[in-house]
Specification:
By secondary structure, the protein is mostly helical. The mean pLDDT is 97. The structure holds fe (ii) ion (2 copies).
Length: 471
């Protein structure tokens, strides 16, 4: 078991106090991180007391502590899951070799890029969400937003720890750059597209936490298989926190749907009641799920093949022994691709399809979430359903990029797509309508009219408890 040092300037279980150089380097990065938080985080709420969970260790069950805290005083720490003794690499060309505790020289650049790309998404989402605190539908939701925000901040710390510890001067440079890029900035954008899209409303936020944080889960899960042990252990612990982010999304969208369904059941028009028609919810689901599909990268990717071969990035749950061939050799993957207005089947080596496999696992997970929403609609006695769009729909990356597919995955003429796209994606009018509903409700026990209250609160408190004490 690792020793947890909670009294240190940077709480950690990585023995920082025994590595003075590293400690000094991280302690000099810390004020820059706080400057970044004060400049681009939920700044207008820095003086309020928020009831937040803070990671204080990695033991199962008792890893978190809840209390009121002002966000800039949150104790962002560095926590890695405990090491597994004699851990072996369990996939790729190095199958059976001992896991690495140092960066293998020939994989240095690739590994650094993986860590930087993951690290970049963490502060990006905080930037994207920075104004949402002004329009939360309830105090409960306001707290959830801030919980997600501070934990994304901690995830940035996790990646910066790896950069500082294992990548020398270029790692330190990358750690600085992570604080300099800005979501949506024309000159210094964040690396991935979905993290440059503005999250303007709470409908966007709940869809983002459902679909984009869930992409995060799959990326982290594939890195948690890594032969580079510190990366595996860091991402493994991040997944613990990530679960709450996805829950926030799934429950958030679910509560919107529940509210809409309840009104429909009563024979009311959701729009006249100031709630969200199902068609609009569907368009937001289409927009954020398809944007998240892009985060998996190309379905046919030599880059992904190399990361797998090198033992850096495994398949989803690779370590559970669910794949017959841990080397993924001598097998192929069938991919339908558009060619000259038709779909043709192509066969590619399995290793090149690693992104496609991860996307498949992700889409199956998303489908389970959508099914849960639909079961609720059915229970309410509403006929209509939400559907998850095909992974071909509205793509900008991979083999389906910029091709006119319908949400059900059918290739159509470009003009038809143009004509119909407002049926499938939020139009300006939809966005305006949704924005018009976004009014803060900060009275205890009250909640906005477009969303149902949650079934339960946080840490055994009721949902209408005072999770935020305004200064
Ligand atoms: Fe994260
Ligand atoms: Fe997250």
């Amino acid at each position: 078991m690792s020793t947890v040092d909670l009294s240190a300037k940077i709480p950690n279980n990585v023995g920082l106090k025994d590595d003075k150089r590293l400690m000094r380097a991280l302690e000099s990065w810390q004020p820059k991180f706080l400057d970044w938080w004060r400049e681009t985080g939920p700044t207008d709420f820095n003086a309020d007391q928020i009831y937040l969970r803070t990671a204080i260790g990695v033991g199962k069950g008792g890893w978190a502590h809840f209390d009121y805290v002002k966000m800039p005083e949150y104790r962002w720490g560095i926590f890695l899951a405990d090491p597994v003794e004699h851990r072996k690499i369990h996939f790729g060309d190095h199958l059976g070799e001992a896991a690495w505790n140092e960066v293998p020289g020939e994989q240095r650049n690739r590994l650094r890029r993986l860590i930087v790309t993951q690290g970049d998404t963490e502060p990006a989402s905080v930037e994207q969400q920075r104004l949402l605190g002004h329009t939360a539908p309830s105090i409960y939701d306001l707290r959830s937003l801030f919980q997600v925000n501070v934990e994304e901040g901690r995830h940035l710390w996790a990646m910066v720890y790896l950069l500082h510890t294992y990548f020398g001067a270029d790692g330190r440079e990358e750690a600085e750059a992570l604080l300099q890029r800005r979501s949506g900035n024309a000159d210094h954008p964040r690396i991935l597209e979905a993290f440059n899209r503005p999250i303007e409303t709470w409908v966007d936020f709940f869809c983002f936490t459902t679909f984009t944080d869930r992409d995060g889960k799959y990326q982290l899960a594939s890195l948690a298989e890594s032969g580079f042990d510190p990366l595996a252990r860091t991402t493994q612990f991040m997944l613990t926190e990530e679960a709450y982010h996805m829950q926030t999304g799934e429950n958030g969208v679910g509560r919107i749907i529940h509210r809409t369904g309840t009104l429909m059941k009563e024979g009311k028009d959701p729009r006249k009641e100031g709630a969200l028609p199902l068609e609009i919810i569907q368009k937001y689901v289409n927009y954020w799920s398809s944007g998240s599909y892009d985060l998996f990268g190309g379905e046919d990717s030599t880059n992904a093949a190399e990361a797998f071969a090198a033992g850096l990035k495994g398949r989803y749950r690779e370590g559970d022994g669910i794949y017959k061939d841990p080397k993924a050799l001598n097998a192929s993957y069938r991919l339908a691709v558009p060619e000259g207005g038709h779909m043709v089947e192509r066969e590619i080596p399995l290793r090149r399809a690693m992104n496609a496999l991860l996307l498949e696992a992700y889409a199956a997970d998303c489908r389970r979430i959508v099914d849960r929403w639909n079961r609720d609609l059915k229970a309410l006695g509403v006929d209509a359903q939400i559907t998850l769009p095909s992974t071909r729909f509205h793509r900008y990356q991979g083999v389906y990029a910029n091709q006119p597919f319908t949400p059900s995955g059918e290739l159509i003429a470009r003009e038809e797509w143009q004509k119909r796209k407002d049926e499938w994606l939020p139009s300006d009018a939809d966005r305006k309508y949704v924005a018009s509903l976004m009014k803060p409700v900060y009275e205890l026990g009250k909640i906005a009219n477009w969303i149902s209250p949650p079934h339960q609160g946080v840490n055994d408190k009721p949902w209408d408890w005072e999770y935020v004490k305004f200064h």
